[in-house]
């Protein structure tokens, strides 16, 4: 069978080879969306694969796995990325990491770059592919695993922890300390996002509050996921007239910001305010007081994600159960909730 060339793609798409190159290389000149769609469709139909690696590798994938994270500055993503690197090394693979900064265009940029390098597969941490990214993935017939995010499509392959159950555990534990209610510091989304772990954390909080017969009305607050912005939100919340007796945070980095705000306002934790987080990042055990949080088995999750992204059989014929692997969450009790730790 003759090798498919860029000329073939250009003819099928009704455009020039230069435009095909612009689509494949994401530049240097812009391409109209409709034209890009035609080129991607032609690439998929013809099975065209551009060579960006040595000719000797033209007939197989490289020993690379592409990993896209929202923000590697956040402790959880940094620790999960490290776990993926370790798991990949066990399989003789190396990892390329890209930060999307929660921006669709950056996600697509890294997808194109990694796929052009003929990676063995892609792992997306805590984010699902955007509509444009999904188009790229489909066009390249790429192997993709979602890590730390539930799938919103039946054929997605994902590795997750029990985010809803973990948040329920933490909220119940705070209520068992006798607090009349527990407030929740969620994310910045105004509407729930299917599969998003923070959405699931909020849902777990809601369920635990409902089980205890407590209202959640006016007790869910929005904050970015980093400690610095969460600190600013917490300063305003804790200095106000309706200071909550206990707070569960969607991620540990937010909880670290809350602890800093409480210290600055001279609010005793846990005497006057109980705090819990989610993720059990390494720093959680070093805060003052040490942070009660929800943990997951990151090394096991990373190994599962790497195994799945390298396994052709699961992608073609895996059952729903094989495609979605859920690991249990566990409560790590330290002093910020009121326990001795």
TrEMBL record:
Any Pfam family hit: Peripla_BP_3
Gene Ontology MF terms in the entry: DNA-binding transcription factor activity; transcription cis-regulatory region binding
Keywords: DNA-binding, Transcription, Transcription regulation
Residue ranges the record marks as coiled coil: none
Domain HTH lacI-type stretches: 4-59
Protein name: LacI family transcriptional regulator
Lineage of origin: Bacteria, Bacillati, Actinomycetota, Actinomycetes, Kitasatosporales
């Amino acid at each position: 069978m003759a090798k498919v060339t860029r000329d073939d793609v250009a003819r099928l798409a009704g455009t020039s080879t230069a435009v095909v190159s612009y689509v494949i290389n994401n530049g240097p000149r812009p391409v109209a969306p409709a034209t890009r769609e035609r080129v991607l469709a032609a690439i998929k139909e013809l099975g065209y694969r551009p060579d960006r690696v040595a000719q000797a590798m033209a007939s197989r994938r490289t020993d690379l796995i592409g990993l896209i994270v929202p923000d590697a500055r956040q402790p959880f993503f940094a620790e999960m990325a490290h776990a993926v690197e370790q798991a990949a090394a066990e399989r003789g693979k190396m990892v390329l990491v890209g930060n999307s900064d929660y921006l669709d265009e950056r996600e697509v940029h890294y997808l194109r770059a990694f796929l052009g390098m003929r990676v063995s597969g892609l792992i997306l941490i805590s984010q699902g592919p955007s509509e444009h990214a999904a188009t790229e993935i489909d066009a390249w017939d790429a192997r993709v695993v979602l890590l730390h995010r539930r799938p919103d499509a039946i054929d997605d392959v994902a590795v997750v922890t029990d985010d809803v159950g973990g948040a329920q555990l933490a909220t119940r534990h705070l209520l068992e300390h006798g607090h009349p209610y527990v407030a929740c510091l969620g994310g910045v989304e105004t509407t729930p996002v299917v599969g998003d772990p923070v959405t699931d954390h909020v849902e777990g909080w809601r369920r635990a509050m409902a089980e205890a017969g407590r209202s959640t009305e006016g007790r869910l607050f929005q904050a970015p996921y980093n400690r610095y912005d969460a600190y600013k939100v917490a300063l305003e919340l804790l200095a106000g007239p309706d200071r909550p007796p206990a707070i569960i945070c969607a991620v540990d980095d937010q909880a670290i910001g809350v602890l800093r705000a409480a210290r600055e306002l001279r609010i005793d934790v846990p005497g006057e305010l109980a705090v819990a987080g989610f993720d059990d990042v390494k720093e959680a055990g070093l805060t003052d007081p040490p942070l009660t949080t929800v943990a997951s088995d990151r090394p096991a999750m990373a190994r599962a994600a790497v195994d799945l992204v390298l396994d052709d059989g699961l992608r073609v014929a895996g059952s729903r159960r094989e495609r979605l692997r859920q690991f249990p969450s566990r409560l790590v009790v330290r002093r910020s909730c009121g326990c001795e730790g």
